[in-house]
Amino acid sequence: MPSQRQLFLNHLAQTSDAPLMLEMLSANGIYMQDVDGKNYIDLISGIGVSNVGHRHPRVIEAIKSQVDKHLHIMVYGEFIQSPQVRLAEALSNTLPKRLNSVYLVNSGSEAIEGAMKLAKRYTGRSNILSCYDAYHGSSHGALSLTGSESFKRNYRPLLPGVSHIKYGDRDQLEAITNETAAFIVETIQGEAGVCHANNAYWSAVRQKCDETGTLLILDEIQCGFGRTGNFWAFEHYNIIPDVVVSAKGMGGGMPIGCFISNKEIMQVFTENPVLGHISTFGGHPVSSAASLATLQTILDERLLNDIKEKEKLFHKLLKHPKIKEVRSKGLMMAVEFESYDTLKPIIDKAIELGVVTDWFLFNDKSMRIAPPLIITEDEIKKACKIILQAIDKA
Ligand code: PMP
Questions:
Q1: Which of 44, 195, 222, 329, when mutated, tests ligand 1's pocket best, judged by the most ligand atoms within 8 Å of its CB?
Q2: What residue's CA is closest to ligand 1, atom 10?
Q3: What is the mean pLDDT of the chain?
Q4: Domain 4-55+305-393: what homologous superfamily?
């Protein structure tokens, strides 16, 4: 009998020649347990998803209750399905008034695709601006936005009319013109290794988009849903986007994504042609119920109240001669080392000692730390102690 490991390698399509291959049996809160009974602290929320922790009781309850009512019954947008409606209302209530129309999909990439189409259709323009070192997903459109040539090179031709500027650089905003449909940008760049820009940059972005009639689309797939200490990361910068995109943490462990805009903008999908953007499974009722429970958990349990304190504790504890810098916004953190060669054995050792972390797609010398927001101070101390041990023993 081939082992599960062997079957995994034989029959599941692989995405690298060095998968982690941890074999997990269960996961609860911040912990995952493997088939041998070993516990791991999930310090990356696998990745950026389990913001309320694995199997949060309210999420599980919502899923069970919806499963007992109905699963998929109709393509997105035709039937009135209570989980979708309640989720859309709750999402709108977390946002400024003009972000009041929610298009539910199944993943981050899909949400980005929808947002790109929305911008093209609403503005009648086809050029889209994105940033270097951005990651917006793996589908063709989203990949076109990706700001790393090595990821794109072998998949060309991609979408025409996409160009890139340096994130956070005000001078480069000149690239936003009357011919730009949208500037699509992560509010905080994730895969670049947690990079943020200042208020002056964001107000210049907003102003330039307003002047040119360009839609400002903020990708909050990684940084939204409480990750940075505000429900939406853009709340830190005193701006309002035209479209905000979410996924990952939004589902509390279930697959779902969305792009949210103003009703008047979103209306373009209804005509010329009708059904301008459609999805069979978008806003699956079970995922929508899980997402609503996730949103309510973050708000009702006031999970955002002590994020700042937790962030500070990480900074206080993660001190070591080999740590060059700790960048963070809330519990979205990057711990920078000299090089990938320094970091890789540390990550391996941390996993061996029971803490799961990794690096970033476009920053392989920084360790990713993005724990479930429910992590306690004691658990932070435990996790940081293991990281420091891993640095010493690697
Ligand atoms: N945008 C950002 C900022 C992301 O971090 C990701 C996922 N890493 C995506 C888009 C794509 O999401 P998905 O993997 O659900 O397609």
A1: 222
A2: 136
A3: 98
A4: Aspartate Aminotransferase, domain 1 (3.90.1150.10)
